[in-house]
């Protein structure tokens, strides 16, 4: 990114919809609920919003989702788009919102996304739709892969190169579930053990069902405005310090490596813009669509050496109270996942950690947070760094 | 392998028609760049390494190494349920490109990372054939 965004903008409001199985609401309705909660959180008026960014939906039959959402919400903004970078979209949208505000294209941007994926699609339909959306239509789908299957191939290669144990991989799901149990809005709160994960239903070896993210009804929203305006908002602003992206491939067959991905470069770009490094991060919300993914991201983002991500979790460093608490809301493995919503809820949680007062799941003294979103099969990466004061 | 209709059949387009035609003759072909010499896959209008559009179709040796694989225990589409458990692999061809395929054969579930495999062909609907791989060398 050529435009320097550090300290120019801040997230001033965040909201989550009702989460889990919410059959009485549409996907657009969930978006609206999250947006309303974010607006109230910020203490802003609807008339303050002059930009909207959203992602995509598998459950709603609309084409121009950005303008559809504006129509649904009664907005007529001068800046609007629906973006698709898979799971990376929320962090990408934060970068685009910050850039639009920094360049004067908008003053206050609502970013929201959500789907009723649990009740708006059958589980079979959800699995097929995802395979069709992410698998190469001509050169992968005839072979019957699935999204878990693709991530299982990544896990298998990682095991081959670094020898992570099945128990270490399972620990990611166990730690994340424990965090989810500390959040009032999580989809899955029942504690699990390493044995539960290893004995859970096989999906695509070496991954079992408890290594896989949830399928939820969920939406999330946040509001970005200039650092100047942010000072007048109701809540303590979360300043955007750095954003970095890297897009290396779309389909797994075109990934140059399945142990090294674009997260390293997106992280380096975000650190450079923020003027910070991994040692400055107090809490991280990493993309965790499957248990192997945060292990890889920890390494790519410089929090540990290649091959040490599994031990990082096993030694408790990722716990609240550990040296770098990860996915303190329960991530996509246990808090919620619905399309692009999973990554967005990581941003919501990062903002809430910086504000403080989260009780048992609060990371003491959290001043700087990192969020990493990825889309496809570790194809599109975006890293953002936010803090509770300008730096 | 017998024609197991119902499985997704190849869909040729302007980029891939010669690939699928060759597969029908039980040949694996790849696009090779006449400017930089690199093979690429899937086939494109230009070379993704140097953007030259001087490309030629070349016959692959049909041998490679398993980069990684999974054993699918839950099918992504109902038609694949009858195949479970089956192996989905990424195979690094001798010429360089990587492709996805099933490892087929009675010993497919014994697949390991790094082992050698060779191409074979599976009939799909309409007489189309899909490149697949078997363990070992021919
Ligand atoms: Zn070339």
Write up what this structure looks like.
The complex is a heterodimer of chains A (391) and B (138). Chain A has 391 residues and is an alpha/beta fold. Chain A has one domain (3-120, 214-387): Thiolase/Chalcone synthase (Peroxisomal Thiolase, Chain A, domain 1), CATH 3.40.47. Helix content of chain A is 36%, strand content 18%. Chain A is built from 13 helices and eleven strands. In chain A, strands 3-2-4-7-1-8-11-10-9 form a nine-stranded mixed sheet, with helices on both faces. A two-stranded antiparallel ribbon of chain A has the order 5-6. Chain A is globular. Chain B has 138 residues and is mainly β. Chain B has one domain: OB fold (Dihydrolipoamide Acetyltransferase, E2P) (Beta Barrel). Helix content of chain B is 6%, strand content 38%. Chain B is built from one helix and eight strands. Chain B has one helix at 17-24; strands spanning 29-33, 39-40, 55-59, 63-72, 86-93, 98-104, 116-123, 129-135. In chain B, the strands form two sheets. In chain B, strands 4-5-6-8-7 form a five-stranded mixed barrel. In chain B, strands 2-1-3 form a three-stranded antiparallel sheet. In chain B, a hairpin with a 5-residue loop joins strand 1 (29-33) and strand 2. Chain B starts with 16 loop residues before the first helix and ends with a strand. The mean pLDDT of chain B is 95. The A-B interface holds A 124, 127-128, 131, 135-150, 152-154, 156-157, 160, 201-207, 252-254, 258 and B 7-11, 13, 16, 41-42, 67-78, 80, 83, 86, 88-90, 98-102, 113-114, 124, 130. Strand 5 (202-205) of chain A pairs antiparallel with strand 4 of chain B, so a sheet runs across the interface. Zinc ion (ZN) binds next to loops of chain B. Zinc ion (ZN) is lined by residues 33, 35-36, 38, 47, 49-50, 52 of chain B.
